Amino acid sequence: MKRKVTLKQIAKELDVSISTVSKSLRNSMEISEDTRQKVQAFAKLYNYKPNNIALSLKNKKTKTICIIIPEIIHHFFATVISGVEHVANENGYNVLVCLSDESFDKEVINMEMLANGSIDGFIMSLSKETQLKKDFHHITEVINQGMPVVMFDRITNEILCDKVIIDDSLAAFNATQYFIDKGFKKIALISTVDYVSVGKLRTEGYIKALKNSDLKVDENLILKIEDTENFEDSIANLLTNNEIDAVFAVNELFAVTAIKEAHKLGKKVPDDISVIGFTDGIISKYSSPSITTVSQNGVKMGGKAAKMLIERLEAEEEEEEQYRTEVIETELVERESTK
Amino acid sequence: MKRKVTLKQIAKELDVSISTVSKSLRNSMEISEDTRQKVQAFAKLYNYKPNNIALSLKNKKTKTICIIIPEIIHHFFATVISGVEHVANENGYNVLVCLSDESFDKEVINMEMLANGSIDGFIMSLSKETQLKKDFHHITEVINQGMPVVMFDRITNEILCDKVIIDDSLAAFNATQYFIDKGFKKIALISTVDYVSVGKLRTEGYIKALKNSDLKVDENLILKIEDTENFEDSIANLLTNNEIDAVFAVNELFAVTAIKEAHKLGKKVPDDISVIGFTDGIISKYSSPSITTVSQNGVKMGGKAAKMLIERLEAEEEEEEQYRTEVIETELVERESTK
DNA sequence: CTGAAAGCGCTTACAG
DNA sequence: CTGAAAGCGCTTACAG
């Protein structure tokens, strides 16, 4: 086992100073052609690579960014990571992935642990618990220390920073309008509880569309799901107890479950009930019938977030404090679950 | 904006030496109760946190491990990351995620870039291209430098290191046997090309099961898919040109596509054709009919891999060179696509 | 053209 | 009980 070779060792072997080796390897004009050649050849032979940690300490930057997400198993978040990765790599950055597991504490611990020099900046989507508590001190603190943060998807207006979002309300409005245009009157909504920012916004869009067309907003047709497990029964109830033409669900899981429950009740999708979901993931694509959905391009969101973060990192120190919010367009992908 | 406070600054403020501050914060008995109290109070007030990079340089370890995977969008790999994350976090490690995108070059670049002090060890699953080229020099090199590597899922026997796998051949054997026990004779296989290690092993298990029951191995019933796009037609052909009772697919995507194509051809699953997939992911669970599948617990595999890596990192330096290969059990999860 | 020195932020063996 | 010094691996302004 040959340990990593350092400048010091090379210097010793070649009987020159460490400075000379360092400068030679960086091709400094200060050093004679001759010495440079010699040092470079030797370094190559021993496969010298500078120690990243030493460089980080010296330069006060690590070329590493961290993305904190609630869950990696959600297809959407996986696509975001993918987008972040690619843009980061193109720019010579590495990506540290942290999972908050929807827990406030884990989010705080992760941020505090990494804010001490380990990384250059954060990209994050808030955990449910954080959104519920509305406690964002950990984020403010990091920003105050001069470390840039870019939020995406699950954001808060209480923090000033760069953000990447979709227009959740508008997307929901459009999906609902799509149903209205088809002549449906009994349009149900399956959403999350209101403290989840995107759930709330999507609910607003749905209501706005109904009102806009002078349709009655029937509270019985609005289901807000708290628990991510065992929500099948709630959905079955919704479908059983109401005459429903169409269902708009704020995520894939709710959409596919609505279809399954409808089938169990002997209702056909899309013949008896049309269904639109949210997030164009793997489920929407491969379920039978495949699901019409609001596509939310995670790769693009992640890429954009990474780009914004890196731009800020590489901007001339403390330039303007102009924070931007980028809105990624969504579109309705029509598949088999609507007609 | 208040910048991070350092030992130096605290020392200056309190008019003591840096050593005294450092020792006080580490609660060294060398320092008087009095001074310790004072320093600790001050540090707390200014929210001092030691700089991780400086510690890494000093300690020659970063408490960061890297996982290199071909693709994050595959549900299986996302679950592995999740498993790695949790075990790593419990042990105070962070996780850097790198994507090879199935490319040999990206795999090499990532490893070389990180092997210089940035991380303490690797967990990896080979890219397709690496498996095809059979060039593992980048991995050997890293191991020779004394950096531990744990391989999982897509591994190679040409590298000596810790490994976490499932018994792909046995799992495929069992799945095939399940069909045989039901009395099916015309059992098709949808696999990947042979250079993908797990595809090959699963194919072997399938063949073994057939031979074991004196069933003819019909090459026409074995489809090996190279391209991950546009394989629908190949599957449709397979189903059209042969009388098939059952299909064993080596991944979810092939399984769900087989079902879709069967339906298009007017064949019902499971009434006309039974289907078993591989990897118990989101597709298998939510497709209609839901898919009977060989479950391959990614969370467990990732957790195990992380555990092995961390144990090696924390073992008394160069202990025994005893490499272990852990086999994670699989099971057949019965759902609606078989009868 | 080459090298000694200082410094990034920390720890720790050693002196006093 | 406190502090100066050396060191982790590197870079760079400065001297010679």
Automatic annotation (TrEMBL), chains A, B:
SUPFAM superfamilies listed in its UniProt record: lambda repressor-like DNA-binding domains (SSF47413), Periplasmic binding protein-like I (SSF53822)
Chain ranges of the HTH lacI-type domain: 5-59
Position of the signal peptide: none
Coiled coil regions, renumbered to chain: 306-333
Keyword hit for DNA damage: no
Keyword Coiled coil: yes
This protein's UniProt keywords: Coiled coil, DNA-binding, Transcription, Transcription regulation
Transmembrane residue ranges: none
One Pfam family of this chain: Peripla_BP_3
InterPro entries: HTH_LacI, LacI/GalR-like_sensor, Lambda_DNA-bd_dom_sf, Peripla_BP_I
Top-level taxonomic group: Bacteria
GO molecular function: DNA binding
Name of the featured protein: LacI family DNA-binding transcriptional regulator
Naturally occurring in which organism (per UniProt): Flavobacterium sedimenticola
